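Our working data are protein records whose layout never changes between entries. The record below serves as our worked example for the rest of this section:
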Amino acid sequence: MENSTQLRNWLDDMALAHPLVIAGPCSAETEDQVLKIAHELKDTDVNYFRAGIWKPRTRPGNFEGVGAIGLKWLQKVQQETGLKTATEVANRAHVELALEHGVDLLWIGARSTVSPFIVQEIADALQGTDRIVLVKNPVNPDLSLWLGAVERLHSAGIKRLGVIHRGFSTYEKTKYRNIPEWQLAIELQTRFPDLPLINDPSHISGRRDLIFDVSQTALDLNFDGLMIETHTDPDNAWSDAAQQVTPRRLVQIMKDLRIRKETDQEAEYNNKLNNLRAQIDVIDNQLIEILGRRMKIADAIGGLKKQRNVAVLQTSRWNEILGKMILEGEGHGLSEEFVLKMFKAIHQESINHQEKIINA
C-alpha cells in the first residue's frame, strides 16, 4: 500500500488522550435499549457508539438483527448524545443504507473478510467515501487474506482505513472463544506500522471476565484502540450475552488499564521494552498451551501401551525424536545443549504421565 502514512491521519487527527474506544451493544434490539446504552456512554472515554444492525449468524433461526430500522436509532444516538456511530456492513445494500443514514464508521466482519468477492462488492460501494472503514481479521488465521481485504479498499480510494483483531476460530477448546494468535497481529503491525490496529477483546474472550486481561495485552502490544461490547443488561442480551459488559464496568476497565505513552527518550525505551516483553509473554503462554496438549497425547499413548502391556520407554523412538529436534533447533539458532535439556525435560514429563496411566 503506497502512502501508508496517510492511513494514520484519521486517528492522529483525533488527538486522543487515550486509546480509541468503540463500545455499544452486540445487537441493536429496541430503540429504548440503544438510546439508554448510548446515554450511559456519552460522558465516558467512548469515541464511537457501535451496534449491530445486521447480524450474520452461524446457523439460521437465530436473531439476525433488526435491520434498517436500527439505523434510525443510530441517528437518534448522534442527535441526542453527540456520539459518532459505527456498524457492520456485509454487502452493497448495507453500505448504501449506512451511508444514507450518516453512520460515521463501518467495519467488515470476519465472515465477510474471508471472501474477496464480498470485500470487492463492499469496496466498490464505498469507493471514494470519507468514512472510516475497519476490516476485521478473517475467521481463519490468514494474514494475506486480511491484508488483501485492506488492499481492495485502499485501491477503491478509501484512505481512512484500519483493522480489527478479533481472534481466530479453532476446533480446539481453549479459554478463549476465538484464539488471539497475537503473532499475526504483531506481524501485521510490523509490516504496516501506519495501519491503525484495534483489538476486539469481546470476541476473543467470549467471556466478560477475560476482557480486561485481553485489553491490557493489546495495549502492551501497542494496539491503537479497543472495541468492547457494552449492554445495560448483558445477561439478557439478544446475542452474545456472555461477552458483554455494563457501561459501569467499561468505565472501570478503562480506569484500570495501564496505558503507556511516549513522552521522551526514556519513555520510548520503556515502551519498546514493554512491547517486546509483551510479545514474549504471548509466546510463553502459547508454549504452555502447546505443552499441555502434548501431554494429553502422551496420556492417550499411555492408555494404548497399558492395553497392550508395552513398556513406557521406547529408546529407538526417543533417539529418533532427539536427533530430529537437534537439527530443527540448529535451523532456528538454538544450541544443541539447550535442545537436549529442553526435550529431556519434556520427555521425562511424558514418561511421568504415561506411568501414571499404566500404574493407575
User: Anything to note?
Assistant: Residues 318 and 347 are 8 Å apart (CA to CA). The longest strand covers residues 84-89. The two ends are 60 Å apart (CA to CA). The chain has a mean pLDDT of 91.
